[in-house]
Q: What sequence folds into this?
């Protein structure tokens, strides 16, 4: 893709994301001191507290200072530090902690439950180094956040690149930190538009490397043929898929499925699967300590050598070399 094409793709993706209907608020800040760790409530319990009319919410944590990890059911620790944004697109139950080992406590024991007359502040841990976090939630009925479709990993970390994007995130987080006394019942910009704009920017950065981001990727999620097929690939990327098997489970003919992928997404189903696996691998290599062989198996390769060849074709260097220049820790 040429620089001009990349620019057009980025603009198209931003435009599509800005059309998303998002509702939410920055709802608390946290001051954690080493050592510390906690476990969240379940997705449904969290939604019941923050958005009673929904069964799920999108959660994000912006690390204003310090360093921390986050993990969901698979147990892999994704690391984040100052300036990084942690996103839990389906609000899944998760664990967070600092650099030093600590016993888990339930978030319910350290967070006052609503209603809140002012923005809550969590203070948890001992007397070690401080990690300051701004936490928020959003709600959207868009298929992008459908927990059944699972477009995204259950948790991912985004580091805005140096420049305007990083400066924008830092400035807005600083503003949010100054609004601790703002009451959620009286929403201002920090309680409404700020989380929406922040998430749109973070998603743009994350999806910039996703397969077919340069075409109708978001539109494909609403396509009656592509939606079930993409859901299958996203939920089981490690399966040995063939076009015939995918078409059979998506209840459509092989020829129709192949033609639809090429028409809307500009690539075959198998090429899309390969690119999706590489997208997932990037996240694992960047934010976890998993070995290359483990990452290979997680994204559907029995042999590390085969994964390394595919990754090098996609990125121009081996997984280890790529990781050395992209790791977030």
A:
């Amino acid at each position: 893709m040429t620089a001009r094409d990349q620019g057009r793709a980025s603009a198209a993706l931003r435009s599509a994301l800005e059309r998303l209907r998002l509702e939410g608020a920055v709802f608390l800040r946290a001051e954690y001191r080493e050592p510390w760790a906690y476990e969240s409530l379940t997705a449904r319990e969290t939604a019941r507290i923050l958005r009673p009319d929904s069964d799920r919410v999108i959660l994000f944590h912006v690390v204003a200072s310090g360093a921390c990890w986050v993990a969901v059911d698979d147990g892999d620790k994704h690391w984040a530090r100052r300036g990084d944004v942690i996103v839990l697109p389906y609000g899944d139950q998760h664990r967070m902690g600092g650099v030093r080992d600590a016993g888990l406590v339930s978030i319910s024991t350290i967070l006052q439950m609503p209603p809140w007359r002012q923005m809550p502040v969590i203070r948890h841990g001992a007397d070690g180094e401080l990690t300051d976090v701004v936490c928020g939630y959003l709600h959207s009925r868009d298929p992008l956040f459908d927990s059944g479709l699972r477009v995204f990993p259950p948790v991912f970390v985004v580091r805005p690149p140096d420049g305007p994007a990083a400066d924008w995130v830092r400035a807005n987080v600083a503003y949010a930190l100054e609004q601790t006394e703002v009451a959620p019942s009286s929403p201002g910009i920090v309680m409404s538009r700020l989380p929406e704009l922040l998430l749109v920017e973070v998603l743009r950065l994350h999806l910039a490397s996703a397969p077919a981001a340069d075409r109708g990727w978001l539109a494909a999620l609403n396509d009656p043929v592509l939606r079930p097929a993409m859901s299958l690939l996203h939920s089981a990327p490690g399966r040995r898929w063939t076009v015939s098997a995918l078409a059979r489970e998506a209840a459509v003919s092989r020829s129709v499925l192949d033609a639809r992928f090429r028409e809307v997404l500009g690539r075959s189903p198998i090429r899309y699967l390969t690119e999706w696996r590489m997208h997932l691998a990037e996240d694992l290599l960047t934010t976890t300590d998993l070995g290359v062989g483990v990452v290979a198996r997680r994204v559907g390769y029995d042999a590390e050598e085969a994964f390394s060849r595919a990754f090098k074709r996609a990125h121009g260097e081996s997984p280890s070399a790529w990781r050395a220049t992209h790791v977030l820790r």
